[in-house]
Design a protein that fits this description.
This protein has 380 residues and is an alpha/beta fold. The chain has helices at residues 14-17, 23-35, 38-41, 73-82, 108-117, 134-150, 167-170, 202-208, 246-258, 274-280, 283-289; strands at 9-12, 45-47, 53-56, 62-64, 86-92, 122-126, 156-159, 178-180, 192-194, 197-199, 222-224, 263-265, 298-303, 306-312, 318-324, 330-335, 345-349, 354-359, 362-367, 372-379. The chain starts with 8 loop residues before the first strand and ends with a strand. The structure holds alpha-D-galactopyranose. Alpha-D-galactopyranose is lined by residues 14, 49-50, 97-99, 126, 160, 184.
């Protein structure tokens, strides 16, 4: 069985809650997966990121913060599993996590077995405080992948070394199912600089930093351009950025879908607004992301500040997105030669949820600033 045959879909605590994550938040989130339609739309993992820790006990085992998780982690897992969802956790390949909590370096085997006792289905494995060389990255990620495999539980392994040592070249070989390709995302269209460093905007991560990586993605092994910021609207307790417009969040979601990226929601879904829910549950766009062929899309061409991206789909279909990175509305026109296709195709607009007829030459659409049009082409 291939783990993660399509890009993993779920929710991670970090982008919204950071250090304030606790059992109540996780339970509310699990309930909201069901009530908001996210589960029906295909989201399944609920992942607790950094700063869940109490410490490491005299028996050598990690234990959670008793204030935040009074009933322990197995109870959280049970709550999630009882709702037909899957449970993920976080550790780090160095001696400490990014948030300064005890991590798994040289404790890989005992930590993997603790996580398996808690019945996790997914592990995000970070890179803070580890010796930052390619040899150590391959060694540490392989050692944890092997420790997870030895537990005999199916655990998706998410490598988070920020692209420092080109994990797309070795991540699959050492047992990773996905690997971060960049530093952290901010809740912003443009990069956010501050005292702490930089958080990358949607534009630089999505349009620039994934280019050329498409050949490394496929069923069971995905490039990960970091989690979604859709719906945060500048309210994150942890990451910076003043938030984005609905148009920008829609573009972010569309681009991540075209990129066959993991769709890890980061906002507070128990309190999300209607526009956020509508974006996150657009099943036609999600279907591009989850297409079984597992191809990562790429930029087919650009004209000024507009770009046309394509993603080959199973059964001869094609996902096509028109993006406008400029500040004024533009008409974007794709000739079939731009897309390297010929013949007659039916065209469907996946945000308008409308068929747009057929063509054997071209398609055009008006696209708002920072906006997109997402289409599915199917041989007629
Ligand atoms: C790193 C990761 C983030 C998050 C934090 C937690 O910055 O890249 O995604 O997990 O650590 O401290």
């Amino acid at each position: 069985m291939t783990l993660a045959p399509t890009p993993p879909m779920g929710w991670n605590s970090w982008n919204m809650f950071g250090a304030t994550v606790n059992a109540e938040v996780i339970k509310q989130t699990a309930d909201s997966f069901l009530s908001s339609g996210l589960k029906d739309a295909g989201y399944e993992y609920i992942i607790i990121d950094d700063i869940w820790h109490g410490g490491r006990g005299p028996d050598g085992k990690l234990f959670p913060d008793k204030q935040k998780f009074p009933e322990g982690m197995k109870a959280v897992a049970d709550y999630i599993h009882a709702r037909g969802l899957k449970f993920g956790m976080y550790s780090d390949a160095g001696p400490l996590t990014c948030g300064g909590r005890p991590a798994s370096q040289d404790n890989e085997e005992i930590d993997a077995s603790t996580f398996a006792e808690w019945e996790i289905d997914y592990l995000k494995y970070d890179w803070c405080h580890a010796e930052d060389t390619r040899a150590n990255a391959e060694y540490r990620y392989k050692r944890m992948a092997e420790a997870l495999r030895a537990t005999r539980r199916d655990i998706v392994f998410s490598i988070c070394e920020w692209g420092h040592h080109s994990p797309w070249r070795w991540g699959e070989r050492v047992g990773g199912n996905l690997w971060r390709t960049t530093g952290d995302i901010g809740d912003s269209w443009k990069d956010v600089h501050n005292n702490w460093g930089i958080l990358y905007g949607i534009e630089s991560i999505g349009f620039e930093q994934q280019r050329g990586l498409e050949s490394y993605a496929g069923p069971g092994h995905w490039n990960d351009p970091d989690m979604l910021v859709v719906g945060l609207r500048g309210t994150s307790r942890e990451i910076f950025g003043a938030g984005c417009t609905d148009t920008e969040y829609r573009t972010h979601f569309s681009l991540w879908s075209l990129l066959a990226a993991p769709l890890m929601i980061g906002c507070d879904i128990a309190n999300m607004d209607a526009a956020t829910c509508e974006i996150l549950t657009n099943e036609e766009v999600i279907a591009l992301n989850q297409d079984p062929l597992g191809k990562q899309g790429w930029r087919a061409c650009r004209h000024g500040q507009t770009e046309i991206w394509k993603k080959p789909l199973a059964e001869g279909g094609l996902g096509v997105a028109f993006f406008n990175r400029g500040e004024k509305q533009q008409t974007v026109r794709a000739h079939w030669s731009d897309l390297e296709i010929s013949g007659r195709y039916t065209i469907r607009d996946l945000w308008a949820h409308q068929d747009q007829g057929t063509s054997d030459t071209e398609f055009k659409a008006d696209v708002a600033p920072h906006g997109c049009a997402v289409l599915k082409l199917q041989p007629a």
